[in-house]
Specification:
Blueprint (H helix, E strand, L loop, with lengths): L8 E4 L5 H12 L3 E6 L3 H12 L5 E5 L8 H12 L4 E4 L16 H23 L7 E5 L13 H21 L5 E7 L14 H7 L8 H12 L10 E4 L6
């Protein structure tokens, strides 16, 4: 395995499971020291730390809720205090809420949290990281192909949050370019995770909408994130990469 990220310090939010865990593993395989954040499962996060350390890198887990904008600076500061600096930020944590616009009793608290985690929390983390990330650093935001294609009712708010992530990244890319910091987005399509199993209610329909007729694997998304976080992607910024098996093609 190429160790092109050896000596780099990475933070992956929501890094204890799914795409976040696969990304943390891939970064560690490439030689980066990795911090992950988690909300609820401390045991699962600590197990991930042990798994990452087996790659011969340093690792740590930090409890942090991405919905808490005020806590973003504290999370970034804790990572810098532990590891000495920050070179790579992967904002992966996200939530999804099914809520048709004509629902007579929408769960407004769930919708507020969706916007807080997926949109304002993302912006807060990037702002906090921008103050300390090294020149030439990498910021990768995990969006969703829901920003450009849905095909199902009930996800207008979710799509709006993910569309905002892509727009925010394009603006942030200009703001941070003077320090050679890149800001990019990956937009996963249907990916097999515990939150989105390929046996779910819409799975058969969604698979049929892809070119490969299957769900993707978290590792396939992680590969794109690691590329954007690496030295070969130095001239890519403000870009959106769909990792979706042709779902949006």
């Amino acid at each position: 395995m190429c160790k092109d990220l050896a000596g780099k310090i990475a933070l992956v939010t929501g890094g204890s499971r799914g795409i976040g865990a696969a990304t943390a593993r891939a970064l560690a395989e490439h030689g980066a020291d990795v911090a992950i954040s988690y909300v609820a499962s401390a045991d699962k996060a600590q197990a991930m730390v042990k798994e990452l350390e087996a790659f011969g890198v340093r690792a740590a887990a930090f409890a942090a809720d991405q919905a808490d904008r005020a806590g973003a600076a504290g999370l970034v500061a804790a990572v810098v205090e532990r590891f000495g600096r920050l070179d790579i930020l992967v904002v992966n944590a996200g939530v999804g809420t099914l809520s048709p616009l004509d629902d007579e009793a929408p769960d407004l608290a769930a919708l507020d949290r969706e916007y807080a985690v997926n949109m304002t929390g993302v912006a807060a983390l990037v702002r906090a990281a921008a103050r300390v990330i090294t020149d030439g650093g990498r910021i990768v935001l995990v969006g969703s192909t829901a920003a450009v294609r849905l095909g199902f009712p009930g996800f207008a708010d979710y799509a709006a949050t993910k569309g905002a992530v892509a727009a925010f990244a394009r603006g942030a890319a200009h703001d941070l370019a003077k320090r050679n910091i890149t800001v990019n987005v990956v937009q996963p399509g249907p990916i097999e995770t515990d939150m989105n199993p390929d046996s779910g209610d819409f799975a058969a329909i969604v698979k049929a909408m892809t070119a490969f007729k299957r769900y993707g694997r978290p590792e396939e998304v992680a590969a794109g994130i690691v590329f954007l976080a690496g030295p070969a992607a130095s001239y890519i910024t403000g870009a959106t990469l769909n990792i979706d098996g042709g779902y949006c093609a």
